[in-house]
């Protein structure tokens, strides 16, 4: 086994990659287990305190577009939640020298180690890389199944569901939790497949990171109605406008619309131009999506809420990019501008938060089907 | 203390130490008597893959007496040197000094012979006696029957007729026989084979091998239970909800179609490995850690195991055959398409069964057993699922469905033990999440456990039969298997199917779901 010296100083966030044998070889489950065993046997005395740790099996299908951006995310994931990590790569790397190019499924076993907080040794996650040619893709789920650590939960991190081979649907069946990010989907119909899956499997077994990102938005919107002057307006809310950047409403906008409707008991009736009409107790209400031409990033930018008499309300909650604060601008019942903390979380933090969540998420269970139903009425308002 | 009193209270020394007092207190105290090990079926797969590597390892560790010899006996014509060359382990560690292998190889011999011909046994006897003179061995013999089972009667009769079996109470030399599984095909054939064995050998000389019992992790079942103060008080129907025993194989029939077609997983796995694991899990503490005391307790479990009545077999067993699929990254054919398998075969490659142990300790605790070929991975595990606390204290805080505490004994691979329990997750609210404590042999001891055959061959050489099956144990196990086999032959339950690479048929899941339980993933 080859290793590097632990990174000096710092907070230990930089990973130390311990390599098994050089390069990838034709897949053989027993050989990989042997290789990992040999790796731990040889590593322990040389490296001092070294802990092999695993709290979960994490399966991550990757392709050329998700490969590099995800590297730091997966490193952070193994630092905060040591796991046996399966990287499923599709023709990302050329076979190593000496590997028969006819081998349809190649593999490599490594370990990713991090300094323990405060020093005192390394905590290591096993990482198994499977590289498949198109002909071998149907074999990948069985290769993964043969190497899962049995008594640990299986988490499928699926960020490329649109482009995954159909045969990898078997990975979903072996997963306890499927984590997807509808924000990475290309269009609303594709986003809706994620939400329909949540509706079918339940939020205890299927999650959407786009929903996790909405947590500060939901917190701020709820806070609006904590204001004494606005508290009566919630039952009279008649108009919601979601402003977004990019070419089409992002996943977060659809989900937020679904959340507002489900929390307030609105029943979707139809779509009229850019407005989606709902039946609420004693009135009709609308949710509209409005594009902000100046904003290129496909993100939710602002939410405007309006209600009529006897509790008039007109308020706009705005947030940009990764800013740590948002503005809450009241036009009615009285004019005022507030600045509020916006607990923006990076992708890795959202991911780990969901991995640590064990209880069902009732709000997501309710919101996801409505978001999917909205897109079914027309995805480009 | 007088010298006489001291001698009277001193523990008996093992045979090797009496021959060489300098061994006493050394790490090789368990080194055994010099003997000649005769392997019948020496050109077979078991000898090459398991027995000779195990004997070589014992030799390297100086646990095999340097005067000992190994004699291969089979039909194939081979010279001593050809046998030595063929015995070189394929995954021989290149770091092993060459002289170690050479020293071991020098103790290997080969005799060609037929299992049927009396004169070949006479010639073998003459050769062994010559070897005794040459190597200075006292005439101790281990006869290892590593042949197909239909050769057992021939070999046993050949040994008897050639006068190669010494009485069990011979003070000068000993003879032992190791018999591989399967020990019979059903209760009647097992009884017949036992009768034939006992025509020549005393039970003390018979070592019926089940290599599972040689695994460190299997031996550790008793250590975990009885060598610790915390587990045994919980090991009963007051605290245990149910037990699962799973023996999963990723391989198919691997060239053994002829044998497997006749045995199926019922005879190949349940009769031996699985019931052995069950007895070790369920047995009472023995009075002493000695062969008969341990085996007496195992037999009591088999007696307490409620035999399945014909009307219960459909409800409490599931049988299935694998269909084509993918296992461990490779496409595989269905069982009926395997070479050597009857295309209309009715042999099961998977079984699941529910047993109950009718005794004070285990009344009401189901033992679910499953085993199959071409499952998702190779894994053997005993899973002890504990009852929920008697009162759901945290229900008011929204913690409704707490996960059960689960103790998992991983027999192979990734040998170890884990215990899961609920813990409050950090935060202001009360959430209880499952967490796991894990013991792993490799990382705890920094070494792989020894191969099962090493331990068992050494134990036989030492005359310790604790880890071998006794006559009554084998016959009782067959009684349970026969009850299922005859009900299956009478028609039920139907043969189900499962895709290779899965965890078996849906019917196996449904069997547990009917009891409000589920299989734990391996």
Briefly summarize what is shown.
The complex is a heterodimer of chains A (381) and B (522). With 381 residues, chain A is an alpha/beta fold.
List keywords for this structure.
heterodimer; A: 381 residues; alpha/beta; Dihydrodipicolinate Reductase, domain 2; 10-stranded mixed beta sheet; 10 helices; disordered N terminus; B: 522 residues; Rossmann fold; 9-stranded mixed beta sheet; 6-stranded parallel beta sheet; 16 helices; 36% helix
What do these coordinates show?
The complex is a heterodimer of chains A (381) and B (522). With 381 residues, chain A is an alpha/beta fold. Chain A has two domains: 16-175; 213-350 and 361-376, Dihydrodipicolinate Reductase, domain 2. Chain A contains ten helices and 18 strands. Chain A has helices spanning 29-47, 67-80, 140-145, 169-174, 188-201, 209-213, 215-224, 251-264, 347-356, 362-376; strands spanning 16-19, 25-26, 50-52, 57-62, 84-90, 105-115, 122-132, 154-158, 177-180, 206-208, 237-244, 267-272, 275-280, 283-291, 300-307, 313-318, 325-332, 336-341. In chain A, helix 2 (67-80) packs across helix 9 (347-356), helix 5 (188-201) packs antiparallel against helix 10 (362-376) and helix 8 (251-264) packs across helix 10 (362-376). Residues 1-12 of chain A have low confidence and may be disordered. By secondary structure, chain B is α/β, with parallel strands linked by helices. Chain B has two domains: 32-180, NAD(P)-binding Rossmann-like Domain (Rossmann fold); 213-513, Dihydrodipicolinate Reductase, domain 2, CATH 3.30.360.10. Chain B is built from 16 helices and 17 strands. Chain B has helices spanning 3-9, 15-19, 45-60, 80-87, 98-105, 118-135, 152-161, 187-200, 216-226, 257-282, 291-304, 310-316, 441-445, 452-462, 471-489, 506-513, and strands at 36-40, 69-74, 108-112, 141-145, 175-179, 206-208, 240-248, 317-323, 325-327, 330-332, 350-356, 366-372, 379-386, 406-412, 416-424, 432-440, 495-499. In chain B, strand 5, helix 8 and strand 6 (206-208) form a beta-alpha-beta unit. In chain B, helix 10 packs across helix 11 (291-304). The longest helix of chain B has 26 residues, at 257-282. Mean pLDDT of chain B is 87; it is low at 1-18. The interface between A and B is medium-sized, with 34 and 36 residues.
